[in-house]
Write a sequence for this structure.
C-alpha cells in the first residue's frame, strides 16, 4: 500500500474517533468542574468535610489515572453490593467507568486550581460585601466565586488540555476513541510512525482549538482587565 | 482483612515479593525517564534561550508537540516503532524475524522525552527568575561564559527550578504506569495481573494505590527538604 | 428620640494587645461625629465593631434602638443571630479606606448589587436610584466603567454612592481619604461635606483635621483605646481640655 494512501486512510479512520474523544473530554470536564467547585468550597469551610477533600485530592493526585480507571472498571465488580445496585448497568460499561474515572480525577486537580483562585479574591471585596449584609451562599455566588473562577481560568484551561490527553487512557479499557483506533491500526500494520504522526496531528489540532477557546473565554469574562475603551 | 494480607503479604499465596520487585522496577524506569528528560530539558531550554531563531523554533516545536499529545501515543511510538526500526535494521544485516524493542528502554525513552518538554519549561522559567543583576555582576568582574554558567547560573537555575522539578518527577512516577501496556513488570502491570487472577481485584488495586501514594509522598517530602536546603541562604520573611 | 447608634463599654483585644479599653458612644440622629487619634489608638477598630466587622470581646452595640445579640462559643464571643447582623449591616453604610469596589462589576452594577440581592428591591427602582446617586457624587458618566479604569478619587466617590444605595440610617467612614493622592482628596471631602449638610447621621474616622473641624457637630479624640476627650469641634480642635489632645492637634492641624 503506497505511503500517501495509507496515511489518508489512517486519517480517515482516526477521525471517526474524534467525537468520542470530545464527548469524553467535555462530559468529564463538565462533571469534574462542577465537583471541583463543590470540593474547593468544602475545603475552605471549617467542617470535617475539609479533611475529606484533602484526603481525596491527595489520593487522586498521588496515583496514576490509569490505576484509578482500573480500580473502577475492574475492581468495583468484586463487591456484591455494587453488582446488585442500580448503578451496575452503568458501572459494568467501560464508557461510564472511563467518564467516572476522568471526572473524579479532574475534580481533584480542578479543586486545587479553584482553591488558588479563592485565595486570590481580594479580602476587601469580601469585606465590603459582608458589610452590605451579604453572607453565605449569596456572598459566594455573587462575589467570591465570580472573582475566584476568573482568576483560575488560565490554569483551568491547562487542565482541560490535560483532560483531552487523558481520554487516551480510555482506549485501554476498550473504548475506541482516537488512541484506541490508533492502537488497532498499529497492531495490524505495525506502521507506528505514520499512525503516531496522524493521531498526534489530530490531538494537536484539538488542543489548538481548545487553547484559543479558553483564551477567548478569558477575554470575554474579564472586561475589567482590558484597557478602558471610553 | 486477613485475606487481604494473605493476598499481598509475603506468605505462600502472597504477592508481596512480586510487588516489591515491581516497585523497584517502577522506581528504576521513572528514574531513567527523569534522567533522559533532564538531558532533553537542558537541551530544550538551551535551544529556546538561544540567539538563533531556528533553535528557538525547534525548541518551541518540541515543547508544543510533546506537551500536546497523549503520553500513551508516545509510548506506542517507541515500543512498536522501535520494534519496527530494529526489525527493518536487522533485515538489512540479513537477520529475519521480529526484534522487540526492550520495553524498559522504550518506556523510559518515551516518558523521558515527554518529561523533557516539561523540564524545558521548568528550566527556562527558572532562568528567567534569576535577577538580572546577579548575571551583570558576574560579567562586571570579567567572568568568562562557561565559568559563569557553572558557578552562577546553574546553581540559581537549580534553586528556582526545584519546585517544578518535584512536580515533573511525580509525573514521571505516575506516567510509568502507562508503560505497563508494553508488558513491563512495573507496579500497575503486576497489580493488574494479580487482580485478574483472584476473585478480589479491588484489594489489589487498593494496594496499588497505597504503593504509589507511598512513592509520591516520600518524593514530595524529599523535594521539599531539598527546597529548604537551597533556601537556606534566603532571608526569611 | 432613639439614638441612631449607641455603644456601651466596648472592649476588644487582638491576642494579648488590648486595643479598645471600654469605649462608650452615643450618636443621635443627624449628628456628624468625627473620631481622631494617633495610629494604633483604636479608632478604626471602634468603627469596624459597629457593623461587627470585628467582634468585640465585651460591651453592647445598639443600632436604631435594637441591641445586637451576642453569645459565647468556645470561650469567644460571636453574634447570636446572623440574620439580625445582615439586616443591621444593611441599615448602615460603610465606606472603606481602600474603597473595596467589586472589580468584576461596573460602577452601576456595584451600586445595585446589594439593594437587588440583599434588600430584594426591584431592579428598575434600584437602577433609577443608583443613577441619581451617581449624578449626586459627580460620577454619572462613569456608570458603565470598571473600577480598574477609575482614579482613586472616582472609586471612592463610587463607593460612597454604593453605601448610599442601601438607604442607610447612618454612614460610617473609615479613613476615606487616607489612600488617596493629595490632589484627589478634595473631591471626596466635598461629597462627604455635602452629605453632612443634608443632616445624615455620620461617624467619620479621619486624619483630615481641618475638614473634621468644619463638618462635624461633635469630635472624639481617642488615645490608647480610651476616649481621652469629647466635645464640640471648637473645643477639641480649637482649645482642647486635655494635654494629649492639645499636643496631638497641634502636631496635625497644619492646614
Amino acid at each position: 500500500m503506497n505511503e500517501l494512501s495509507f496515511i489518508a486512510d489512517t486519517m480517515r479512520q482516526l477521525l471517526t474517533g474524534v467525537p468520542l474523544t470530545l464527548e469524553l473530554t467535555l462530559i468529564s470536564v463538565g462533571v469534574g468542574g462542577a465537583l471541583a467547585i463543590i470540593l474547593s468550597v468544602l475545603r475552605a469551610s471549617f467542617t470535617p468535610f475539609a479533611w475529606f477533600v484533602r484526603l481525596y485530592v491527595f489520593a487522586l493526585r498521588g496515583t496514576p489515572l490509569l490505576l484509578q480507571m482500573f480500580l473502577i472498571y475492574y475492581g468495583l465488580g468484586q463487591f456484591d453490593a455494587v453488582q446488585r445496585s442500580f448503578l451496575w448497568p452503568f458501572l459494568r460499561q467501560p464508557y461510564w467507568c472511563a467518564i467516572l474515572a476522568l471526572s473524579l480525577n479532574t475534580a481533584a486537580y480542578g479543586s486545587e486550581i479553584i482553591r488558588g483562585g479563592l485565595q486570590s479574591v481580594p479580602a476587601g471585596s469580601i469585606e465590603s460585601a459582608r458589610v452590605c449584609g451579604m453572607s453565605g451562599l449569596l456572598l459566594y455566588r455573587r462575589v467570591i466565586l465570580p472573582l475566584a473562577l476568573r482568576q483560575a481560568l488560565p490554569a483551568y484551561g491547562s487542565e482541560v488540555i490535560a483532560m483531552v490527553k487523558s481520554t487516551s487512557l480510555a482506549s485501554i479499557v476498550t473504548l475506541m476513541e482516537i488512541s484506541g483506533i490508533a492502537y488497532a491500526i498499529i497492531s495490524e500494520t505495525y506502521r507506528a510512525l505514520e499512525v503516531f504522526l496522524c493521531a498526534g496531528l489530530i490531538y494537536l489540532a484539538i488542543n489548538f482549538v481548545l487553547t484559543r477557546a479558553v483564551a477567548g473565554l478569558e477575554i470575554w469574562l474579564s472586561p475589567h482587565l482590558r484597557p478602558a475603551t471610553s | 482483612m486477613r485475606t487481604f494480607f494473605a493476598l499481598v503479604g509475603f506468605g505462600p499465596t502472597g504477592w508481596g515479593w512480586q510487588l516489591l520487585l515491581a516497585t523497584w522496577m517502577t522506581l528504576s524506569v521513572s528514574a531513567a525517564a527523569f534522567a533522559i528528560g533532564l538531558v532533553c530539558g537542558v537541551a530544550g531550554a538551551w535551544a529556546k534561550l538561544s540567539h538563533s531563531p531556528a533553535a528557538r523554533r525547534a525548541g518551541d516545536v518540541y515543547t508544543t508537540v510533546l506537551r500536546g499529545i497523549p503520553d500513551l501515543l508516545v509510548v506506542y511510538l517507541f515500543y512498536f516503532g522501535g520494534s519496527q526500526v530494529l526489525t527493518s535494521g536487522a533485515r538489512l544485516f540479513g537477520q529475519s524475524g521480529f526484534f522487540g524493542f526492550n520495553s524498559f528502554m522504550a518506556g523510559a525513552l518515551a516518558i523521558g522525552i515527554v518529561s523533557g518538554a516539561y523540564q524545558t519549561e521548568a528550566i527556562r522559567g527558572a532562568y528567567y527568575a534569576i535577577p538580572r543583576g546577579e548575571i551583570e555582576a558576574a560579567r562586571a568582574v570579567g567572568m568568562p561564559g562557561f565559568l559563569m554558567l557553572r558557578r552562577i547560573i546553574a546553581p540559581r537555575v537549580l534553586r528556582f527550578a526545584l519546585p517544578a522539578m518535584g512536580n515533573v518527577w511525580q509525573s514521571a512516577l505516575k506516567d510509568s504506569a502507562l508503560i505497563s501496556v508494553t508488558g513491563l513488570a512495573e507496579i500497575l502491570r503486576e497489580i493488574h495481573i494479580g487482580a485478574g487472577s483472584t476473585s478480589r481485584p479491588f484489594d489489589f488495586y487498593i494496594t496499588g494505590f497505597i504503593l504509589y501514594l507511598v512513592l509520591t509522598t516520600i518524593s514530595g517530602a524529599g523535594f521539599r527538604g531539598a527546597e529548604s536546603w537551597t533556601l537556606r541562604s534566603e532571608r526569611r520573611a | 428620640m432613639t439614638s441612631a447608634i449607641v455603644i456601651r463599654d466596648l472592649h476588644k483585644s487582638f491576642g494579648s494587645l488590648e486595643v479598645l479599653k471600654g469605649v462608650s458612644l452615643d450618636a443621635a440622629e443627624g449628628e456628624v461625629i468625627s473620631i481622631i487619634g494617633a495610629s494604633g489608638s483604636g479608632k478604626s477598630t471602634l468603627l469596624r465593631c459597629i457593623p461587627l466587622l470585628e467582634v468585640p470581646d465585651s460591651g453592647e452595640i445598639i443600632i436604631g434602638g435594637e441591641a445586637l445579640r451576642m453569645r459565647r462559643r468556645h470561650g469567644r464571643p460571636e453574634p447570636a443571630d446572623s440574620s439580625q447582623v445582615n439586616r443591621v449591616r444593611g441599615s448602615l453604610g460603610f465606606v472603606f479606606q481602600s474603597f473595596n469596589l467589586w472589580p468584576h462589576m461596573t460602577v452601576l452594577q456595584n451600586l445595585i448589587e446589594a439593594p437587588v440581592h440583599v434588600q430584594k428591591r426591584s431592579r428598575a427602582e434600584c437602577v433609577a436610584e443608583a443613577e441619581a446617586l451617581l449624578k449626586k457624587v459627580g460620577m454619572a458618566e462613569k456608570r458603565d466603567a470598571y473600577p480598574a479604569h477609575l482614579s482613586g478619587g472616582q472609586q471612592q466617590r463610587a463607593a460612597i454612592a454604593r453605601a448610599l444605595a442601601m438607604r442607610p440610617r447612618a454612614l460610617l467612614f473609615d479613613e476615606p481619604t487616607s489612600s488617596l493622592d493629595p490632589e484627589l482628596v478634595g473631591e471626596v471631602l466635598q461629597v462627604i461635606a455635602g452629605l453632612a449638610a443634608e443632616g445624615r447621621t455620620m461617624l467619620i474616622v479621619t486624619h483630615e483635621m481641618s475638614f473634621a473641624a468644619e463638618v462635624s457637630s461633635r469630635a472624639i479624640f481617642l488615645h490608647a483605646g480610651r476616649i481621652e476627650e469629647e466635645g464640640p469641634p471648637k473645643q477639641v480642635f480649637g482649645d482642647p481640655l486635655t494635654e494629649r489632645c492639645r499636643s496631638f492637634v497641634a502636631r496635625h492641624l497644619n492646614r
In short: DSSP finds eleven helices and no strands in chain A. Chain A has one domain: 3-221. Chain A has a mean pLDDT of 90.
